[in-house]
Amino acid sequence: MRPRPLPLLVLILALSAAACGGGSRDGDGGPTGATGEATQAQADQAMGGLCDIATGVVTESGDILEAFHTRAHEILHHVASQAQEIDPVVAGAMLEAKSVVESDLLMAPFPSDLPAHAQALVATFADALDTIGLRPASCPSAT
Q: What per-residue confidence (pLDDT) applies to 35?
């Protein structure tokens, strides 16, 4: 059995939290759950923002940035923090996928594979939600 690269995952989680700030409020300014844990409503909101990017529902730069930064970004950190305590590999995979999407969002214009990268983030976010006991929402099909 291959050993897990735990120190690297812990470092990724710590650097990610430090780089993005670590508040206790979600993208709408609402507090996280009473214990600082992600709520189902927040998870659904974040998944909705990611799905909008992954399925091409939002195509304008401002709408894409809003979907990620306002609706999803903060809750991704909360979920990663919770998942880290249970399964660092799951948390690390989600943070890695989040980092790819964030890199895409720094480019102008956004790369054509942004939706595919967002879909990968949706999948790892769903795994992290399962890990912490929340129900991941499904992305609707693009129309």
A: 55
